[in-house]
């Protein structure tokens, strides 16, 4: 009985080993970048490639003169105020490597198109009727969930963690990310959001 199962195990191994060595190597993953676009008062995009890394630190944010957007693999997402509400705004396209890298999704190259399409479709459902800085936060939260839910992506990615240090400065200094003055009501929402996201920091 015992020697029979050892024989079985051995013969299984002998069959499996050559199979393991002849399996095709999986295709290289494709990377989808998620980047934060910060456009300074002069209209230049702050980018790792053109600016010293030290110039990108959150403490140097110029809250009232910067325009912010999210760059998902070349597609731009931003909101802007129009009369008394926020609507979709900003540029539609960017270079895929433009902006400050928040994270990368690795996608199996055979599922790249599918993953990209699903992601874009999901992001289109996020309401742009939100202050720009918070709209970007909501988009990042959704990308994180999608990354876990989509079979072709299926990975953990901490985009908000990378974004929060930048966002905190904007919230504290009442920067809109759209080069407009926030209303008193909007500033109050910022204050609440700060208290919620950074409890104990004092919120100012
Ligand atoms: C931002 O707005 C809040 C609410 O009006 C205010 O208390 C706070 O002092 C403002 N912060 C700055 C840096 O202007």
UniProtKB/TrEMBL annotation:
It comes from the Eukaryota. This is Uncharacterized protein. It comes from Lentinula aff. lateritia.
């Amino acid at each position: 009985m015992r020697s029979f199962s050892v024989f079985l195990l051995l013969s299984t191994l002998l069959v499996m080993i050559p199979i393991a060595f002849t399996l095709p190597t999986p295709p290289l993953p494709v990377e989808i970048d998620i980047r934060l676009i910060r456009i300074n008062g002069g209209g230049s995009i702050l980018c790792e490639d053109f600016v010293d890394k030290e110039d990108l630190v959150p403490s140097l944010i110029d809250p009232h003169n910067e325009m912010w957007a999210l760059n998902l693999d070349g597609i731009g997402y931003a909101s802007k105020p129009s009369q008394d509400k926020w609507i979709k705004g900003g540029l539609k396209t960017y270079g895929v490597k433009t902006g400050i890298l928040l994270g990368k999704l690795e996608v199996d190259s055979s599922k790249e198109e599918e993953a990209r399409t699903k992601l874009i479709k999901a992001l289109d459902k996020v309401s742009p009727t939100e202050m720009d800085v918070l709209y970007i936060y909501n988009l990042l939260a959704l990308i994180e969930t999608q990354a876990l839910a989509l079979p072709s992506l299926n990975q953990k990615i901490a985009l908000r963690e990378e974004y929060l240090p930048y966002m905190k400065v904007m919230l504290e200094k009442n920067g809109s990310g759209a080069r407009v003055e926030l209303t008193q009501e909007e500033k109050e929402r910022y204050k609440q959001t700060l208290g919620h996201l950074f409890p104990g920091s004092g919120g100012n």
